[in-house]
Amino acid sequence: MNSTYATSNGATSTGSSRRVHAAVYTEPIIAWYEANARDLPWRAPGATPWGILVSEIMLQQTPVVRVLPVWLTWMERWPTPAALAAEPSGEAVRAWGRLGYPRRALRLHATARAITDRHGGEVPAAHADLLDLPGIGAYTAAAVASFAFGQRHAVLDTNVRRVLARLMSGTEYPPKSQTKAELTLAESLLPLDPPTAARWAVAAMELGALVCTARSPRCVDCPVLDRCAWQRDGRPAHDGPPRRGQTYAGTDRQCRGRLLAVLREADGPVGKPALDAVWSDAVQRERALDALIADGLVDPRDDGRYALPG
To answer: Is 56 a catalytic residue?
Structure first.
């Protein structure tokens, strides 16, 4: 790969000098990670590929503090893909609790079955095989291949994209949707040694989670503050489309959560009055219930009652 890219002083770099340039950023951040990383069970030396895959699915749009207790309970109950695959999908939805976006539970259950059926119950190491699993997209495949198997892939989550936007491009936030240019930049920074590349991936992610945060970045604690293009340019404010936080109260999503909570806490199928009691807006409630049924999260019974799937 001989393409050029801009350095922090506006010059360009090609060939082997690109790696020297990249190390100016990657090495300090990896060193910072070694000293400051959170002690999380899916990062422990004994963490299994399955445990890492489960964590990656749970952590999508959900903070660590909420994921940790659910992950621990989940892994105690289902330490292997086969253990989860042997149970109805509704049990995955029940155990998902209040993590939000419960379709992730269904996808994880489907993934467990695919791993059991196609790969003898072992999470596959090949990136292509990971991508072929149901519900596994580009980010999750790269993350599992890197963190579980020490491979060399660009792992671009929201935190990493924000770190690279500020550090290399001088912008406060990355584009709303990932671009090809972002992927090219991330790949240009990857250390050649696969285990080191995997370490860089998690280190950049942790820096974005703890220091280079979205709202209140702790720039004074950044290990590459003197090399940050955003800092050098005076931390220019975001000038793109307004970044609006997600609302929750009163939304269909909240209504869906209330309905699912009734079914999770029940010992068996429940009648319609039990669902009606938790949301007063009948039109919104019926719309949310229909959506849950369409998503496969609720099973309508022939006798007019409702239950979790499976």
So the answer is: yes
